[in-house]
Specification:
- It is a single chain.
- By secondary structure, this protein is an alpha/beta fold.
- It is built from 9 helices and 20 strands.
- It folds into 2 domains: about 180 residues, 3-Layer(bba) Sandwich (FAD/NAD(P)-binding domain); about 160 residues, D-Amino Acid Oxidase, Chain A, domain 2 (2-Layer Sandwich).
- Helices cover about 25% and strands about 25% of the residues.
Length: about 400
C-alpha cells in the first residue's frame, strides 16, 4: 500500500464531504477518494433547499430537524462561504383541495415542532405578489433554508483538510481489500491513483454506490432517479421565498416509473432562478430532455405567469440515489466488517448530509447512537446477495421483515 488511513471515504459529493468533515473533527486520519473531482456528480446538478415539511413525521423528519440545526452551526463555523440563508419556503395550494392538503401538512409539522403559517389567497399574494392570482393559498415554513450545494461541498472539504484530511482526486476505486480468513474485515482500498490501507471504508458514492458495494459482493437497492433543472435569466424581485407546489411531496414519495413534474422555484445568490422539478427512472442517462424542460417550464408559468417572457439560459440533469422505502442507508454493511454505507438520500442529500456525516462518525468510533440511527441501518434490507463473476445477482434486495 502507498498510504495508510484510519478511514477511507469513497465519494467527493456533499455526503462524502460531510462524512470526511465529521470523521476528521473526531480526530481520525481520513483519506477521501473521488474518481473525478469534488462535487462532480449530483452535488453540482441539483437545487439548494434544506426542507423540513416534505419529510414524513418519524425518522425522516427527525433526521432532517437535526441536520437543519447542524447546517446552521456549520454556517457559523466554516470559513468558506457556501451561501447559507434561512429564507423559509412556501408550499403553494393551487385549489381548495390543495389548500386542505396544505393545512393538513401544516398541522402535522406543527405537531412535530416545525413552525408553519397557513396563508389564505390574500396572505399568499402579500408575500409573493407575482404569483398567479387564482391560487387558493399556501403554507409558509419559515425555518427552511438554502445553500449552494457545490460551494457547501467545497466548504466541508476545506474545513476537513484543515483538520488533516487527505484528498485524492482522479482516484476511481477498483477493489476493496479484505483480510484473508477470519471475519473478512476490510483492510484497504485500491484506486487507479494508488492504494490506501485502512480498517474502515465509508461508501458515500451516491447513485454509484452499487459499483463500490459490488466490490465486496453486495447488491444495494439503490436506483438512479433523474431530475432536471432549468436556470432562468436574472429576474430581480420576482420571488421572495423558494416556492414549491403541494404536489411536490407526492412526486418524492411515489415509485412510479413515469415522468413526474412539480414546481420548485428558488432564487440563487446571483439573482438567477432555478426551476424544477422532475423525477423519472431512466437508468444512468444524464442527458437533458427538451420534452421534460417544456413540462417544467409549463408548470412554472402556471404559478408565475410573468416567466413566460423570461429566457432560460441553461439546463442540466442529475441523478438522485433512490431507496425503496424513501429512507437512507446509513451505517455498517452486514457481513463486511469495517464497511459503512452513507447513501440512498434521493432528493435529500443536501439537507441530510451533516446528520449523515455525524452518524457515520459515531458508527466508526463506536460512540453512543441516537435511537433514530436504527431506522436507517442498512440491515433493514436483505443485502446478502451473491454476485458471480459476470456480475449477475439473484435478484433485487427486499426489506428485511425482521
Amino acid at each position: 500500500m502507498t498510504a495508510r488511513a484510519d478511514v477511507v471515504v469513497v465519494g467527493g459529493g456533499i455526503v462524502g464531504a460531510a462524512c470526511a468533515y465529521y470523521l476528521c473533527a473526531a480526530g481520525l486520519d481520513v483519506h477521501l477518494v473521488e474518481r473525478r473531482f469534488p462535487a462532480s456528480g449530483t452535488s453540482r446538478a441539483c437545487d439548494s433547499l434544506i426542507l423540513l415539511w416534505d419529510k414524513t413525521p418519524g425518522a425522516d423528519l427527525a433526521l432532517a430537524q437535526t441536520s437543519a440545526a447542524l447546517w446552521a452551526d456549520l454556517a457559523e463555523a466554516l470559513d468558506f462561504d457556501f451561501e447559507y440563508a434561512r429564507r423559509g419556503t412556501i408550499l403553494l395550494a393551487e385549489d381548495d383541495e390543495g389548500m386542505a392538503a396544505g393545512q393538513a401538512t401544516a398541522k402535522a409539522m406543527q405537531a412535530a415542532g416545525v413552525r408553519a403559517e397557513v396563508l389564505d389567497g390574500g396572505g399568499l399574494r402579500s408575500l409573493e405578489p407575482n404569483l398567479a392570482p387564482d391560487l387558493a393559498g399556501g403554507v409558509l415554513f419559515p425555518d427552511d433554508a438554502q445553500v449552494d450545494a457545490r460551494r457547501a461541498t467545497l466548504a466541508l472539504l476545506s474545513a476537513a483538510q484543515g483538520r488533516g484530511l487527505t484528498l485524492h482526486t482522479g482516484a476511481e476505486v477498483v477493489a476493496i481489500r479484505r483480510s484473508p480468513g477470519g471475519d473478512g474485515r476490510v483492510c484497504g482500498v485500491e484506486t487507479r491513483a494508488g492504494d490506501v490501507a485502512t480498517d474502515a471504508v465509508v461508501c458515500a458514492a451516491g447513485v454509484w454506490s452499487n459499483d463500490v458495494a459490488r466490490l465486496v459482493g453486495v447488491e444495494l437497492p439503490i436506483r438512479p432517479r433523474k431530475g432536471h433543472i432549468l436556470v432562468a435569466a436574472r429576474v430581480p424581485g420576482l420571488i421572495r421565498h423558494p416556492l414549491l407546489e403541494g404536489g411536490y411531496v407526492s412526486t418524492v414519495q411515489s415509485a412510479t416509473e413515469d415522468l413526474q413534474v412539480a414546481l420548485v422555484a428558488e432564487m440563487t445568490a446571483s439573482g438567477t432562478l432555478l426551476l424544477g422539478s422532475s423525477r423519472q427512472f431512466v437508468g444512468f442517462d444524464r442527458s437533458v430532455s427538451l420534452a421534460v424542460m417544456r413540462a417544467i417550464a409549463t408548470r412554472a408559468v402556471r404559478f408565475l405567469p410573468s416567466l413566460a417572457k423570461v429566457k432560460i439560459i441553461r439546463s442540466y440533469a442529475g441523478l438522485r440515489p433512490w431507496s425503496p422505502d424513501h429512507l437512507q442507508l446509513i451505517g455498517p454493511l452486514p457481513g463486511v466488517p469495517g464497511f459503512y454505507l452513507a447513501t440512498g438520500h434521493e432528493g435529500a442529500g443536501i439537507a441530510l448530509s451533516p446528520v449523515t456525516g455525524r452518524l457515520i462518525a459515531d458508527w466508526v468510533l463506536g460512540a453512543e447512537l441516537p435511537p433514530v440511527a436504527a431506522e436507517v441501518r442498512p440491515d433493514r434490507f436483505d443485502l446478502a446477495v451473491g454476485i458471480g463473476e459476470s456480475g449477475d445477482t439473484d435478484g433485487p434486495p427486499s426489506p428485511n421483515p425482521g
